[in-house]
């Protein structure tokens, strides 16, 4: 996946995940991109290692869904750590 694809999928996935987790007002565009990219890496690793699914590749529905799931997991971990 190219650099531009990472940014586009990361921005979309981070934005969707922030809305799911109720953090949309607290996060800006840059934070959404970072959370989405890290979520894509996390979600892709989980999908390929534990569920034998392929890694996200390119701009498509599968990549966005895997990235959103990973971003939601990442935001849940961040919320849990902040509460302690």
Your description of this structure?
With 84 residues, the chain is mainly α. The protein is built from three helices and no strands. α1 packs across α3.
**For the terminal residues, how far apart are their CA atoms?**
36 Å
Look at the helices and sheets and give the structural class. mainly alpha
Instruction: Count up the helices.
Output: 3
- Report the strand count: 0
The average pLDDT value, as a whole number, equals: 87
Instruction: Give the helices and strands as they follow along the chain.
Output: HHH
Portion in beta strands: under 5%
* Shape annotation: globular
Topology:
Layout: H1 3-20, H2 29-50, H3 61-83
Helix pairs in contact: 1-2, 1-3, 2-3
Brief rundown of the structure:
By secondary structure, the protein is mainly alpha-helical.
């Amino acid at each position: 996946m190219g650099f531009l694809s990472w940014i586009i999928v990361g921005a979309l996935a981070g934005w969707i995940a922030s809305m799911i987790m109720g953090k949309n007002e607290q996060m800006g565009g840059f934070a959404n991109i970072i959370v989405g990219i890290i979520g894509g890496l996390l979600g892709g690793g989980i999908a390929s290692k534990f569920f034998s699914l392929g890694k996200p590749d390119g701009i498509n529905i599968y990549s966005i869904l895997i990235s959103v799931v990973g971003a939601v997991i990442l935001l849940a971990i961040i919320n849990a750590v902040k509460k302690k």
